[in-house]
């Protein structure tokens, strides 16, 4: 299993290109199941999760073509990929393919909407809480689907072969349930209103793509989406938006090490709450043509209290990275996780660097220390893994991060991007 070895202490200086967002690319790829015409996606990141979803889509009969030359190692540009689901050959998403990635469960929406039936294994994914699928299933039931659980599979059927529009109100904001019900509603008979919809930029990115495919959706970017079902969707060309979590992660890495980094292609409007927090923590952040610049020269890291929230609040996917930063602040900060009930697995690993963190229920109290020391640590989930890299960048001596397959799921060429800015970091194969 690959590992990452790094030696901390260097400032980050230079440019980091921000890739297309994983959390937008995945639902966009799944939307290709809604039409028999080609869907061309631009700026698709090169990630293990994208590859895995390609396998799942191919199993349903989607033809996938990556355009142009396969780019070499030095090219950071995103991929342009055409997905054509002329015929859905199989409406089952099997356990072997679905169990490693929760988002693959989302195929249930388009399969049910287009084919009138779907059989999808209950999902796996990061171990950051129980992550049930009750909102998805209740939402689809509202759209008239009949649903059974059989042998670990969700078996869903639309009576008469077509879903019916309905009013759906989610009890809590859910990104995935919003994606699924919105996709399903595009081909349903009649109008669907989704209330308490997720407003995450990735939801809007998917909604805009669906509109380009002929869907009738209003209220995009608000908590009330109105979807008027149509008989058929067409192909489209659509661009994956830049990854706000990758942006925030590198911004926190630069805030941690000090230096001056331009995050190329980053869009500040996608993560304003996190940028505000970083400014309060002592970094200087400016928008400029081509991206976002972050600097921290000389001044220390200030403690800031943070609570995760659905968009536009502080994202849960940046909580671990921010905690890593706070381990070096010159005071005490409280970090409250409100989205997932078990998202503090990185605390024990950060402690291996000498961090002082005390967890009390959903809140972690972090007392900054003057120095972290390099350590052997273990990646536990996607975002937690990268928090260990951030800690390692500032720690004295050598750090080895084990089990980095989690990192490869969501961060494109992390070690390349960081080493180009002066970090001493390498991947050790095997
Ligand atoms: C997505 C993101 C993930 C991010 C999360 C929250 C992708 C691929 N993943 O995950 O990176 O951390 O949003 O921003 O985009 N819930 C239920 N029942 C349900 C569905 C959700 O109780 O049926 C709960 C979850 O347990 C959690 C909360 O709702 O407590 C929010 O989860 P949700 O927004 O659905 O997360 P995902 O879509 O899985």
From TrEMBL:
It is found in: Cytoplasm. One of its GO terms (molecular function) is UDP-N-acetylglucosamine 1-carboxyvinyltransferase activity. Its main location: cytoplasm. One of its GO terms (cellular component) is cytoplasm. Its EC number is 2.5.1.7. Gene3D superfamilies: Enolpyruvate transferase domain. Pfam families: EPSP_synthase. It comes from the Bacteria. Residues 8-418 form the Enolpyruvate transferase domain. The keyword NADP does not apply. Pathway: Cell wall biogenesis; peptidoglycan biosynthesis. Cell wall formation. Adds enolpyruvyl to UDP-N-acetylglucosamine. PANTHER family: UDP-N-ACETYLGLUCOSAMINE 1-CARBOXYVINYLTRANSFERASE (PTHR43783). This is UDP-N-acetylglucosamine 1-carboxyvinyltransferase.
